[in-house]
Amino acid sequence: MDKVYTNIVQIAGDVITVEAEGVGYADIAEIVTSRETSLAQVIQLDGDRVSLQVFAGSRGVSTGDRVRFLGHPMRIATGDDLLGRIFNGSGVPLDGGPALSENVVDIAGPPVNPVKRIIPNKMIRTGVPMIDVFNSLVVSQKLPVFSIPGEPYNELLARVAVQAEVDIIILGGMGLKHDNYLFFRDTLEEQGALTRCIFFIHTAADPVVECLLVPDISLAVAEQFALQNKRVLVLLTDMTNFCDALKEISITMEQVPSNRGYPGDLYSQLAARYEKAVDFDTAGSITILAVTTMPGDDVTHPVPDNTGYITEGQFYLKNGVIEPFGSLSRLKQQVNGKTRDDHRIIMDTMIQLFANYRGTLEKQAMGFQMSAWDRKLLKYGNLFEKNLMSLEVNIPLEKALDRGWEIMAECFTPEETGIKKSAIEKYWRAPHSTSS
Amino acid sequence: MTSKRKGRIVKVNSNMITVLVDGYSIQNEVAYVIHGKERLKSEVIRIRQNHAEMQVYENTASLKIGAEIELTGELLSVELGPGLLGQIFDGLQNPLPALAERHGFFLKRGEYLEALPDDTKWEFTPLAEKGGSVRAGDKIGYVPEKVFKHYIMVPFGLRGIFEITQIARKGMCNLKEPVAELKGADGKKHSVFLQQIWPVKMPICAYREKLKPTRPLVTKMRIIDSMFPVARGGTYCIPGPFGAGKTVLQQLTSRHADADIVIIAACGERAGEVVETLKTFPNITDPRTGKPLSDRTVIICNTSSMPVAARESSVYTAVTIAEYYRQMGLNVLLLADSTSRWAQAMREMSGRLEEIPGEEAFPAYLESRIASFYERAGEVRLNDGSVGSVTIGGTVSPAGGNFEEPVTQATLKVVGAFHGLSRERSDARRYPAIDPLISWSKYKSFIDEGKMEEAHAVMRKSNSVAQMMKVIGEEGTSPEDYVSYLKGEFFDFTYLQQNAFDPVDEATSEERQEYVFSFIYERILKEKFDFENKETALNFFHRLRQSFRGWNSASWGSAEFKDIEKEISDLVDSAKRKAKSEITHG
């Protein structure tokens, strides 16, 4: 049912209004301008006036251009043919390969019935001690990386992607700088991971609203793989760009903004995407790791704030490291009791001591005297930052736990750590004997 | 009413549609959008001449201008009857397990199922006799449901006195078979079924009088029961920034609270959290009944990715079910997580209706809606003299963790207790993160008020010394102030904080709270310690704290409990003796 209409009556921002009949809400249309063909989506129906958001932007659209309604919502091809491929934000190949039309599904499908989910219980190992030891990533978790612009969040995502034990990785880039896109591609290629990756890339040079489709497309493809028993990891960077695109459209549509110009349904919009993370009771899983840059390092900004209420914790990237305070994996308790019996001990004790170290730093900055205990803490803090916290460190969980014991043994007596006796007997080694 | 009224869509704006109606329309009536084979439930929310604006309880993708609408003339209602306990419903009372059986992984739009299966047979026992006179809410019989007598009551909507003209004998019957027939003063006859239908947005008022909430509802959380108690039939709210532990607090309350029935309304929150409740409750034994916790629980779950409009109805569905069980003389606890999401759903609709926005774009009627929701809580005396209650506890998720925002403020105006969670406490892993310095309760605790006021004073003093110490350092603090600080910290660590992962510490009975509190009050808070120096004071309290931790983990009345109590007692005695001997010798 292809219908072509030519009477565009209004163009405002990236939203055009055309007079048409028999159009379904949220349907997709193609707009053919003198330069290009762009996709657009119906966002309002009012009598015969149909408003569409134009993904390639309205620049250059003429009131005489043709709008062809495709008669269905946005769809995307799925399946193994996508592996190793790179597409733009509307699903058009960027790698010169053929366009795909197999196993087409509607994006933004219905929500999962909660009774078909299981309680998450499998850890994803990443080789980053600040994640594995202190805030374990769990299958089906949705976790954002809160970060100031300029922090190495894309490097972190790429590392997790390379090392995570999952079947398929889907990268959704929104407003990604072109060199970052190349960085992702090259890193994954070097590590031989490209064949289990699918890229949906919207770069900073592309029209802003085009990034609105990226999360939905990525997650729709992920969902199909998950239904076929695959463990899928979806990386989204950067969700703040997605929210800004939502803001732009809602202001153009003259909606009443709720908070700093963002639409009132920002929470629901974000939740609809993040809640796609799932561990099906009889099929595979989707895990989401997303970057949310915080304008001005302000966690109360509407985007990180709404995100925090939806996701199951957050990694807080600051000064090039994952900050132990402010970072939280809400699901870690589901998995860290089953790894090694000292996992929780190391996690709790080292963080408590590190908190004391931070207190000592404050004291030092204010010019108070340093006691013997303070000096121990300073030594401990430095070792912790260098040997565990730095993102350079890349070791498996067990090695990281051993390293934790080493650091503590180098700085403290067993009693000073407050660790229970049985664990000390099992794991504590005097510093000189552990020179591996 | 019988003639089916129809209409046609003239405008679609996300989940709001405008419909040109043939004939009259009723505010808040339910309508269906006919889209091919699908029938999408919606509700009229504004009428302008012959245009009705409706919120659709489903995704509106693919709807077209001109699509047909059927208006039902009925308000959004729920089915009330035996079989609710242990169920998991969505916001429109669709049973989710049955939907999963039929449609698999996903919630297909436009699929609705009966909330209560018609074919289940229940054993009815009559309590009233033919010829007796009854009115709305009177119990005429019962069926067994789980461990409860599920009373069958005269429909709540009937007005006046009725005569029982027929009543079934003891025996099995299903939801659709009448168990009694009533005759009104006007001679009209009404059948009574095991099940009745009630519109969710109307409170059930078939009781004699509403009472003042005075009896405490024990939650087994020390900081709540002792310092900021909740009363049966009362209301309380838990605002807090994300990650402060609101949901964990609600989950613990749902497990341990001393209520007959717990209704959990998971409104616009994470699906994972509901999954945890619904997968673990069948395996946790309720110590009061010996049966699984799920037997006394109803879960209404409309998680954040489920349709927004149904989020609003989910809290009403939950409170209506709560009121229904209250009518049987039971104590019901309704936990709503989170009321902010419900308020946001209102904001979304209000924006689409292009209403003039209030603060932060919330609608002007936000306050009155929140107030009328919480007002449905209460302890009531029923027609037969027995007492039932609905207690409502709602979490609030304030934007940016700032309590000045409209939803928190509107809620604080109408609730009886405020359990404010703070980021500082949760960052310091002081759980439950209820901040004793900002929280309050208007209800009475089972702990002596005067003593508790002194405990509050200790906390305030301790905090002000701590603030001062940040500036002038430990060195500049006087020994008396330092001990006050340590007392407050001690009370916080050992009494106010509770370890949710410790099987004993996670729930403290009323008896134990009274005992331990009076011990701490008499032996430590009131005690005038006179330590040699700050370090001995600190060491003493560290040792005391460690022993107390052990005490908190020892089961009530066990030998271990008594041993540790003795140990602590001795420790306090020795500290006092030392102080005394120093005074006499110095």
Helical proportion of chain A? Answer: 25-40%
Return the CATH class of the largest domain in chain B: Alpha Beta
Give the helix/strand class of chain B: alpha+beta
Strand proportion of chain B? 15-25%
- Average of per-residue pLDDT values of chain B: 93
Put simply, the count of helices of chain A is 13
Radius of gyration of chain A: 25 Å
CATH architecture of the largest domain in chain B: 3-Layer(aba) Sandwich
Number of helices of chain B: 14
Helical percentage of chain B = 25-40%
Structural class of chain A: alpha/beta
CATH superfamily of the largest domain in chain B: P-loop containing nucleotide triphosphate hydrolases
- Our count of domains of chain A comes out at 3
Tally of strands of chain A: 23
Shape of chain B: globular
CATH topology of the largest domain in chain A: Rossmann fold
Any idea of the CATH class of the largest domain in chain A? Alpha Beta
Largest interface: A-B, 66 and 64 residues
Main beta sheet of chain B: strand number and arrangement? 10 strands, mixed
How many structurally independent domains of chain B? Answer: 4
